[in-house]
Amino acid sequence: MSGDRLIATEEDVDLAYRRAWFPVTRSQDLAGGPQQVKLLGQELVAYRAEDRSVRVTRNRCAHRGAYLHTGKVVGGDIQCPYHGWRFNGLDGKCTLVPSSGPDKPVPPGAVIDAFPAIERFGLVWTCLDPGYQEFPDFDFLADWENWANGNGDPIPVGCGIRHTVENFRDVAHFAFVHVRTMGEMDPLVEPLTVSREGYTMVMERGYNVAGGFEEIWHDSMVFTYYVRPPALICLKMEGDEGIRYTVHAAQPVDDTRSIIYFATAATPSWTGVPIAEAVRHEHIIYSEDTPIISQLEPREAPLFGTAGLVHSPADKFTLGYRRAFAEWARDLAAAGKPEPSELTSATTG
Questions:
Q1: pLDDT confidence bin for 347, thresholds 50/70/90
Q2: Domains of the chain
Q3: 223-252 residue pLDDT tens
């Protein structure tokens, strides 16, 4: 990560976000038909093609601008509900204008934007400007789909995605916000052990339950947080009952609104609480955070430094994440687009 500029500009962040992968809906929600989604202010539609692959395109028809998410899927195409024009979900090209008949060429400008789509952790992910970054996976979660796993309901919040990341692993707020769900805790935060691997921040600390929540958290567990910019977290919870993971990912709807997605899974040796119960409990935890982080000012966490706010030793991880995020955004914004032969991105749907 070379360069003498540690603080990324907002322009760097905007460009890096376009080159990054974000979740836009849950895989299970596509069973109800095409889904209207919004990413970085752009209206998109996500749907499952008849071959079971996932597709993401612009949500407006190139003919008269009708919403496509209210249409239907035909093969791999999304069909406009207004005049029936069909658009291929892989390249965005119009494949049929019903009023002209199948033998007539379609207008050359009948194309909509189409984006790559990947399914991971029970979520559909896309990237508005692909080719710059591999999908940000964690190698130790390679068997996720083979483990018992489940997804919580999407959680809209009135803040930027960086605030959702900082809140998730901000251990100093547990004693005040999560007494009902995490038990009585000492508000004193011990010196935190924080490390960094590339752009990924790592923190490990012990958690001792108190207050009758042993069925969820058990007597004593080790929590290890892995945070990868821009907004992907994996929490590893390890104890006598085995290992359980929670993945948190955030979708930037726009500058001040986000949608949080979370999923949890347990390795085969897990003997603790069933996954469905863990998902239900974690959703309650998020519901305790939501009204607070939706009122933070500024509405998005600063890129780096204080920005007029005061910090404490318990913010060691937060400041490390801000530095890593700023460097990630700066470097990704400055990256030249690789040649196709150099790309090693994950397989798309």
A1: very low
A2: 30-126 (2.102.10.10), 139-332 (3.90.380.10)
A3: 999 999 999 999 999 988 899 999 999 999
